[in-house]
Amino acid sequence: MQADKLLPTKEKNLLQFALGESAVVAQQEYDLADNNAKTAASSLRETSNQLEVLHRGLTQTQFQRIAEVVDADDQISILNGKIVEAQNIGLIQAKALPQQLVLPTLNVDDVFNILGTSLENIDLAAEQQVKEHLNIHNKNRLEKWISDGHAYGDEGNCLYCNQPLDEVELIQAYRSYFNQDYNQLKSDVSRLTGLINASCSNEIIDRLKARFETASAVIDGWQEHVEIIPPTFDESSARDALSNIENLLNALRESKEVNLLDSVGSEEDRSEVTRNWQEVLDVVVACNDSISNATAVITDYKNNLAALSIDNLQNQIRDMEWAKARYRQDVIDLFAQLALEKDQDVAAKAEKQTKKDSLNQIMQATLESYKDRINELLRGFGAQFLIPNIDFNYRGGLRSDYVLQMRGANIALNGGVPDFKTSLSEGDKRTLAFAFFIASAESDPDLANKVIVIDDPMCSLDLNRKQQTRTVLKRLHDSCEQIIVLAHDVHFLRNLRDDVLRTGNPNNVKCLKLKAVANRYSDFDEINIDQECESVYFKCHRILDEYMAGNAQSSMEIARSIRPMLEGYLHRRFPNLINGGLLFGQVIDLISNAQPPSPLINAQNITNELNEINRYAGQFHHDTNPAADQVQITDSELLSFVERSLALIYAG
């Protein structure tokens, strides 16, 4: 039982011991369980505090439930980039979008019209004659060569052999064959090379490529903000298809040039040109599709960018930082430790409750059995209060909770009016504690084999309670194996010793004291308890007697004992007639000046002797001689004055 607000530490321990061994063991088990519960709770609190530093703004449960983010650093980097983008949204929104390629056109109608042109108004006889002539020679491109030469046919003679051309039948056939329409057709065929070159120029692909490269550069400029699949342009396929068209048309042109009057170029040829041109268009369409996809990604990014919130991005970064912190190894270890400590905390609380229930049962039985004996002891001590009932609680540790009854009024242990603190003196409180202890000790069935140690049981007690305390301790001494009493009041110990010796063996009583030894340690030493209880008068008388008996003493101590011995003698011879504050010389003057009927006149016959002794003894006291420590003592002179002082007392 503890009473922190009422008693010093020693009395707390006394009250605790007073509950009895079974209760003390039960309390120790409860205290251990309580300490274990506090330790477990403290460890749990400390681990929680360590975690709290990491999740400020979140509850511990929220922090623990955060999902792991493997690429948290990468996401934080992306989010920081988005913050920069959000801060520069105006500049980003103003950036250009990629432009698609313009679909090219192919116009070969004029080419095929020229290739398909033939002359129907040529003289058939002349045509046959010219054809036969050409076939005879069977020379490649001969017809063209003759046609070109026919242009110079206005001359009268042949420009090659200078023979006259008139009346030459073949020349007349040439003139009919190579007429004006033929010349027009020939002129149209001569334009085919230019038309084919214009239609199938490499500049078509070059322009497409340049436009593609511009779009690619624009898209590359967006790659710092958003990931875009770069567009593609199959330049090689486009050039191959265009080259196929050019080769086909040139082959047809060459055929037309050889057979000027024949229709050249079939529907299959037209379809082949169309098919190859479609390959060129397919390359352009595929490129435009990839540009469209990139544009869609960019447009979506720009739309999302407009909705970006810097605060939201920063919150996302904070969430990522929490996720990083949550899955640091030291934090994972802390949560594992926290789970273990939670289990330990639950187990410790359950164990504490079990020990508390057990202690409750013992306390209820123990305190009720003590109540009657405690009240009996209180009456024996003359206490003005009793205990009508005893209870207990655990506020601040196991405490007794009882009401005292004093002069018909109830005094609660904690609070209330009248108040326990002011209603009971320190002596009353110690008496109450001592009664608890004695009741506990006397109820021990194994008391005869127990050693009982009592520390200062009589502090602040009045004479009646001191007497009753000695009586109780004497009874306890007679009932136990050994009793050890520690006290500061040597007179109480002397009286207790005398009580014990009246019926006990002196050899079984030992009086010891603590003395200082080397290195500031203490040791036990025997003590003459009777000498320790001596008054100044008896002590000085004993010192002078021992000196006269030949026991070596300090000469200065002997010399300084003469005057107080005589003062004590006069005080005892004339009680209440000599003021205790007077110096020895003043006491002698008081006796010398006494008048009847004062009893002091009976000592006037020794005043001369008293004055002589005082003149000698006074030199060794500082109140009459400031240099008392320097006075030289002659042993023979000292012995003489000691004899005279003792003789004066013995003579009366």
From TrEMBL:
InterPro entries: CR006_AAA, P-loop_NTPase. Coiled coil: none annotated. Gene3D superfamilies: P-loop containing nucleotide triphosphate hydrolases. Residues 30-576 form the Protein CR006 P-loop domain. This is AAA family ATPase. It comes from Paraglaciecola aquimarina. The lineage of its organism: Bacteria, Pseudomonadati, Pseudomonadota, Gammaproteobacteria, Alteromonadales.
